[in-house]
Each structure stands twice: as C-alpha cells, then as structure tokens.
Specification:
This protein is α+β, with helices and mostly antiparallel strands. It folds into two domains: 84 residues, no CATH class; 35 residues. It is built from three helices and four strands. The radius of gyration is 26 Å and the shape is elongated.
Length: 170
C-alpha cells in the first residue's frame, strides 16, 4: 500500500482545477456579466420611464440564454444564474428601493450597439465641454450681466484652467 497517495501533504503533480473556479481571495461583483462583442451592456432601474428612455436610446432587453449573472443565493446551486426574473428578461432585485405596490425594485440588463453608445457619449462630452469652456472663459451670464455684476466676481481677470477635457480612449 502506497502511503504517499493518502497524505494530503504529498499533493499530486497534476492539480485539476474545476471549471468556473474563483478563489475566495478575489472579489466578485454582484452585477458583473460577460461582455458581448459589438454591444454595450448596462443595468437599468426597473422604473417604466427609465426603461422607455433606454429603449429610445437603442437599448433592448438581454435574453436569459445570452448571459449568466453571478449567483449569491445562499441555499441554491452556485452554478445556476443569479437572474431572478420569472419571464424571459434578465433582472435582479436591486435591494435599495421599493416600488409603489410595495414590491422590491428590480434592475434589468439591457444592451445597445456600441455605435449608439459611442454617439451618445460624444453628445454628452460635447455638452460638458461647452459648459467647461464657458467656465474657463468667464462667460457665464455674459448676456444678462451688468458691469456692476462683473465687478463683483470672485475671480478677476483670467480664470484659472480648472477643466481639462477628458478625451475618451477608443
């Protein structure tokens, strides 16, 4: 009888790590889902107006068979998806709000093509840059400002450069 096989200190040279192994020392995000090439995924609060706005921006619901959500169910199967929606959509309980009927709020996973997402981000960046440009140039309220108002500004002369445009990396 070979005693080396029974001793756990004499581990086998070939370690078999199970599929989906995540060490306890690594962090796991509750809402982390796999990325899909060519699409931007986002969790939306399940309020009707937020869902409608997301659909207007090109987002559509992600189907259950397309993604696996991290499972934090205490008594359930760790390999099952953490999705708790009873229909075909992917959703989880948000845990921080209650709707009008007293039910817990939900977060829905939606996705849109990257082209739509990038276009929306450019619009947002342009709007933010125009506000920052006005602040840098001291032009806030110029059309309605009197000379008495401008003399009461805290910063006289050139406004320091407080805003550097944040250019997105592509």
């Amino acid at each position: 009888m070979d005693q080396n096989n029974n001793n756990p200190a004499n581990a086998s040279a070939e370690l078999k790590i199970p599929a989906g192994f995540i060490p306890m020392s690594s962090g796991v995000q509750r809402l982390q889902v796999a990325a899909r090439d060519g699409y931007h995924r986002h969790w939306f609060r399940g309020e009707p107006n937020r869902i409608a706005r997301a659909q207007q921006a090109g987002y559509s619901f992600v189907a259950k068979e397309d993604v696996k959500v991290n499972n934090f169910d205490l008594g359930g199967d760790a390999n099952a998806s953490g999705d708790t929606d009873l229909g075909s959509r992917v959703s989880v309980i948000s845990g921080d709000d209650v709707d009008n009927s007293g039910q817990p709020g939900r977060l829905y996973l939606m996705e849109c093509p990257n082209a739509y997402y990038e276009y929306g981000q450019r619009i947002l960046a342009d709007r933010n840059e125009s506000v920052a440009e006005a602040l840098r140039g001291g032009k806030i309220g110029v059309d309605r400002e009197t000379s008495e108002d401008s003399s009461k500004r805290y910063v006289k002369g050139a406004t320091p450069d407080l805003f550097n445009p944040n250019r997105r990396r592509t």
